[in-house]
Amino acid sequence: MATYTTEIASDKLISDNPIHQRLLKAYLAAKPWISGDLLEIGCGEGRGVDELLPLAKSYLGLDKIGEVITMLQGKYPGVDFRQAVIPPFKGFKDESYDTIVSFQVIEHIEDDRLFLEEIYRMLKPGGKAIISTPNNTHTLSRNPWHVREYLPQELIDLSSGVFDRVEANGIGGNQKVWDYHEANRKSVQKIMRFDVLDLQHRLPAWVLRMPYEILNRFNRNRLHRQQGDSVVSISHEDYPLVDNPEKGLDLFYILWKKEE
After folding, report:
1. Is 168 helix (H, G, I), strand (E, B) or coil?
2. Residue 254's beta-bridge partner residues?
3. Residues 6+ apart with CB under 8 A from 168
4. Prior bond to 87 cis, omega within 30?
5. pLDDT band at 215 (very low <50, low <70, confident <90, very high)
6. Do 39 and 122 form a contact (C-beta atoms < 8 A)?
7. Which of 37, 194, 207, 242 is 20 to 30 A from 216, alpha carbon to alpha carbon?
8. How far apart are CA 85 and CA 253, in angstroms?
9. Residues 6+ apart with CB under 8 A from 237
10. Nearest to 100 by CA among 145, 147, 162, 175
11. Taking Cα atoms as reference points, which of 66, 24, 25, 81 lies closest to residue 47?
12. Architecture of the domain spanning 14-256
């Protein structure tokens, strides 16, 4: 039985629905760019496998959690899933993949430049990587599971130092989504008013993870009770792909490797 942390965001818990739909949108938005041999870095519980498989010549899904990989191997017999802690990507050859996707991963990576350099190395000439990550502009509190979060230009600058072309977009929201986000912001502020010493930024991340989980789950459940149908009714269609990353709840970037 999987344990659904607020970081994973379950498709089985109603209170997680707005986050689940937001994360699912990245897979749907990526579909026009999926082709050839595909590597997914951080496949999680397989939120987007059904969306990606039909579009790829081959698919390999990587995740660091062994339990997740075992579950996916049972759910998708014949599909290649492997446990891996990255970077570096040991045993992966240069120029092996036409497309690499990695959603909500780079914010967890200590050496983010090496992560991007390894993706570049594994891409075939003319290949592309599609990545998403939270837009720090709209983050409501420190997430102790994240090493860092990026402002749009910060990720453009980092990516441009590795890739030959960067297309910077965002996963935005319609009015329903922004109303939920505003209710979430107010709810988080009510909780954080007790943090008069700003411990969320002063304590080590490992100390904060358990209280963060408890309070974040409490907050999502409270929003579900308060917002009711609006939490349930939010779908991926309420999260449009926007060409201005500043307007995105998440950054959604297509990173290109030039043809030889």
Report:
1. strand
2. 130, 167
3. 152, 155, 156, 245, 251, 253
4. yes
5. low
6. yes
7. 242
8. 23
9. none
10. 162
11. 24
12. 3-Layer(aba) Sandwich (3.40)
Q: Distance (Å, rounded) from C-alpha 32 to C-alpha 9?
A: 25
Distances in Å between the Cα of 191 and the Cα atoms of 184, 194, 215, 219 are: 11, 6, 8, 9
Q: Where are the domains of the chain?
A: 14-256
Tokens of 181: 């986000």
Q: What is the pLDDT of residues 107-124, one digit of tens each?
A: 999 999 999 999 999 999
- Angle among Cα 64, 15, 1 to the nearest 5 degrees reads 40
Strand partners, 40: 61, 101
The C-alpha atoms of residue 127 and residue 155 are separated, in whole angstroms, by: 19
* pTM for this prediction: 0.81
Count of CB atoms situated within 10 Å of the CB of 9: 23
- Which alpha helices (DSSP H) does the chain contain, by range? 17-30, 49-52, 66-75, 112-122, 152-160, 175-192, 199-202, 205-227, 229-233
